[in-house]
Write a structure and sequence with these properties.
This protein has 258 residues and is an alpha/beta fold. It has helices at residues 46-53, 93-97, 99-103, 109-121, 137-150, 167-184, 195-201, 223-226, 230-234, 237-257; strands spanning 4-14, 19-30, 35-39, 61-66, 69-70, 78-82, 155-159, 187-191, 204-209, 214-220. It is built from 10 helices and 10 strands.
C-alpha cells in the first residue's frame, strides 16, 4: 500500500448562481520519502488539490488516505511551508519555531532541544532571541522550515515556498530544503509554477491540465538527477531536454486554454 493514496478526486465550487468544476478524476500515489511536484497552468487546481490532500478542503467526491487511513484523521501529521513565512513579528525566532509544538501540546525539553538543534543545523545558530524583522527573507524561510519540521510531520506541503525570494536565495534554499528532507526521510508535495524547480527538486512531476484540473502527464526524473542536489541538477546534461519536453507540453496546455 502506498504512503499516500489520492483516489478519484473530483471537486466543484458552488455559488448561488454557478458551479465551477476545479478538479476531475484525480488519482495518484506517493511513496514514503518521495518528493513530487504539482505543475500546470494557472487555474488547473494545483492549490485546490493541495488543500484537499491536506484535508483543509473536503472534496466533492473521492478519498485521500495517508498510511491507509483517511487524511482527515492525520491533520497533526501534515506540515506546511508557504510562500509567506507567517512568523509572528512580535515573537522571537525561538518562540516562533516552538509555536507548532506548543499548539499540538508536544512541547517539552526534548522537543525544544531538537528544534533548537535543527535551527543550528540549518545555519541559523545564534538567532534564537532575535525578531523576524532582523532576518533576511531567506533566513525567515529557513525558520519557517524549522518550525514545520519541529513537530515531526509525516507529510510536508510546500506551496510555492521560494517564489517571493530573489533567484540566488531561491537556489540556495532549494538545496537546503532538499538536503534537509532527505536527511529526515520526509515525504513532500510541492506546488510550483517553476518548471526548473520541479525538475531539480522532484522524483516525479505531475503535470495538470486546466478547466477542470486533470493529471495530464507524469514525468519521472532520471536517477542521475534524483541523486544530486537541485543546483547540480540544473547544470546536468539531462536537465535541458527534460525542461524542453515539459515546456512544450505546458505550452500546448496554455494554447488549449485560450
Amino acid at each position: 500500500m502506498s504512503f499516500l493514496t489520492v483516489e478519484n478526486i473530483h471537486h466543484t465550487y458552488f455559488t448561488k448562481t454557478s458551479a465551477t468544476t476545479a478538479l476531475s478524476n484525480i488519482s495518484l500515489t506517493v511513496e514514503e520519502g518521495e518528493f513530487v511536484s504539482l505543475l500546470g497552468p494557472s487555474g488547473c487546481g494545483k492549490t485546490t488539490l493541495l488543500s484537499i490532500i491536506s484535508s483543509l478542503l473536503k472534496p466533492t467526491q473521492g478519498t485521500v488516505l495517508l498510511e491507509n487511513k483517511p487524511v482527515t484523521t492525520a491533520k497533526n501529521q501534515i506540515g506546511y511551508m508557504l510562500q509567506q513565512d507567517y512568523l509572528f513579528p512580535w515573537k522571537t525566532i525561538e518562540e516562533n519555531i516552538l509555536m507548532g509544538l506548543k499548539l499540538s501540546k508536544q512541547l517539552n525539553q526534548n522537543t525544544k532541544a531538537a528544534a533548537l538543534r535543527l535551527l543550528n543545523q540549518i545555519g541559523l545558530a545564534g538567532v534564537e532571541k532575535q525578531l523576524p524583522r532582523q532576518l533576511s527573507g531567506g533566513m525567515r524561510q529557513r525558520v519557517a522550515l524549522v518550525r514545520t519540521l519541529a513537530s515531526e510531520p509525516k507529510l510536508l506541503m510546500l506551496d510555492e515556498p521560494f517564489s517571493a525570494l530573489d533567484y540566488q536565495t531561491k537556489l540556495k534554499l532549494e538545496d537546503l530544503v532538499s538536503q534537509t528532507l532527505d536527511e529526515f526521510g520526509k515525504t513532500a508535495i510541492l506546488v510550483t509554477h517553476d518548471i526548473g524547480e520541479a525538475i531539480a527538486m522532484s522524483d516525479r512531476v505531475f503535470l495538470l491540465s486546466p478547466s477542470p484540473g486533470r493529471i495530464y502527464k507524469t514525468f519521472t526524473m532520471p536517477e542521475e538527477l534524483r541523486n544530486i542536489s537541485p543546483f547540480e541538477a540544473r547544470n546536468h546534461a539531462a536537465f535541458s531536454s527534460i525542461f524542453q519536453t515539459i515546456w512544450k507540453e505546458l505550452e500546448s496546455l496554455e494554447r488549449e486554454k485560450e
